[in-house]
């Protein structure tokens, strides 16, 4: 018996930290971003098909994310083309991971879970959340993007309130201790459900 738990949340909500907490509780973790990194790296399955369409994005046998970002900025159709090539490979990567894992609970860390309809493949969904002002502080404190870039990303993501409303569990990541207690509670509930299945 295996339980598929989707983990989602907008930028700066504490998703990576929360994902690690599930691992600490004995869950297996599949990370969509890490899968894309594997697919883009040297020898990765996305290098040849993406390179055929965007030859300028191939550098030393790997896909350059920076080159793809430049292309997306310059060409309105590029993102859709990239997604059509990469999305099936990501799904394949996820399937391989699922087949090979022995854990009873698999956490699927997928930032755009609802946006891509991925929640339909999950047994339950957990969304990480903090108030917008904390989200903004965290993202801008990283020093990796401007406020304008952050606002643009936030505008493109499903509103946090909607994600929370559509999720089975919401984990508030205001403090590490609070988040960990909630993760432990979610895992306990799922294990209880599995033991009665």
TrEMBL record:
Reactions it catalyzes: 3'-dephospho-CoA + ATP = ADP + CoA + H(+)
Keywords in alphabetical order: ATP-binding, Coenzyme A biosynthesis, Cytoplasm, Kinase, Nucleotide-binding, Transferase
Catalytic activity, EC: 2.7.1.24
Signal peptide: none
Pathway(s) the chain acts in: Cofactor biosynthesis; coenzyme A biosynthesis; CoA from (R)-pantothenate: step 5/5
GO molecular function annotation: dephospho-CoA kinase activity
Annotated binding of ATP, by residue: 12-17
Compartments in which it is found: Cytoplasm
InterPro entries named among the record's database cross-references: Depp_CoAkinase, P-loop_NTPase
Family the entry assigns: Belongs to the CoaE family.
Annotated HAMAP family: Dephospho_CoA_kinase (MF_00376)
Function: Catalyzes the phosphorylation of the 3'-hydroxyl group of dephosphocoenzyme A to form coenzyme A.
Protein name as it appears in the record: Dephospho-CoA kinase
Organism of origin: Roseobacter sinensis
């Amino acid at each position: 018996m295996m339980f598929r738990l989707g983990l989602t949340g907008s930028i700066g909500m504490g998703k990576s930290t929360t994902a690690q907490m599930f691992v600490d509780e004995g869950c297996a973790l599949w990370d969509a971003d890490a899968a894309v990194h594997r697919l883009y790296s040297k020898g990765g399955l996305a290098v040849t098909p993406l390179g055929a369409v965007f030859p300028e994005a191939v550098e030393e046998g790997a896909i350059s994310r920076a080159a793809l970002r430049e292309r997306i900025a310059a060409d309105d159709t590029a993102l859709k083309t990239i997604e059509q090539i990469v999305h099936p490979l990501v799904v394949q990567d996820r399937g391989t991971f699922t087949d090979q894992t022995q854990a009873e609970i698999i956490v699927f860390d997928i930032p755009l879970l609802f946006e891509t309809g991925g929640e339909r493949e999950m047994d339950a969904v957990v969304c990480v959340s903090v108030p917008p002002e904390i989200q903004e502080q965290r993202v801008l404190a990283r020093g990796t993007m401007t406020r304008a870039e952050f606002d643009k990303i936030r505008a493109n993501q499903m509103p946090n309130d909607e994600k929370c409303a559509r999720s089975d569990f919401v984990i508030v990541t205001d403090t590490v201790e609070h988040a960990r207690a909630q993760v432990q509670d979610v895992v306990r509930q799922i294990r209880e459900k599995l033991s009665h299945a």
